[in-house]
User: What shape does this take?
Amino acid sequence: MSWTFRLTRRHVIITIAIICAISVFSILLVGQASMQASDKTLVTVYDRGERRSFLTTAKTVNDALKEKGFQLEQKDTVEPALTEELLNSQYNINIYRARSVVVTDGKVNLRAVSAYQTPRQIAVDSGITIHDEDNIVFSSSSDLLADGAGLRVQIDRATLVKLDLYGKIVELRTHAPTVAALLAEKNIVLQGIDRVMPAQATAISEGMEIRIWREGVQTISINQPIQFGREIVYDSDRPVRYREARTPGSPGVRAVSYEITIKDGKEIVRKEVASVVLREPTPQTDVIG
Assistant: This one.
């Protein structure tokens, strides 16, 4: 017995309809999977030298870390901040773990716990007043048992002096060993008719008063602002058109001395003779997405 299969027009229509239905169903499944994936954020966490990546639906950095069991101590710091909302598809999170340090300021040793990475940041975080001219470096503890920490922050304080610069009195901090070295450090060039006291070979000491004047010539000194610059940081984790001044800038100040010539009660010549930076400008940091 033989069987003959006859393909009718109805069979063709039914077959095409089934194929179309399967295709539409597959597209819907793929679309649903894509939508589910797009609802999640890819987070990469750097902690103690290790890297860990995962997908999450958490709304903030704090929620994402808690979801994956990251334990934070009180002094640990996180970048971006724990309150940062996860608005983009991908984020990098850095965890800086606090560790014990000893901050040495002259004869004073202060034990501290800090997550900051630079010696200056650690000193400031410890509540110590730091000046721009102070030198701050890392060093190893020589007595681990007594210090209770293997890391030491050493503060080398600059010496405070008072400078009478052509009638303008300013306070300066310096590491220069002598008056001559201080003048060179501050770019103060004496002319033939200039005088300085004490002598240039005199050693610098705390609170020393130094006077510079010009004989036979009238001088004036004024403070002038120094404009601050801008630093731009491009953050791929931020949305397009995002812009924020993360660190506001502040102008610096310089003391400028002028030699002036007066004839018949009028100023006819003004010449800059010295300029000392009293405070360096702080650049503004702008974050752009």
In short: The chain is about 20% helix and 45% strand. The longest helix spans residues 9-38. The CA atoms of residues 30 and 42 lie 20 Å apart.
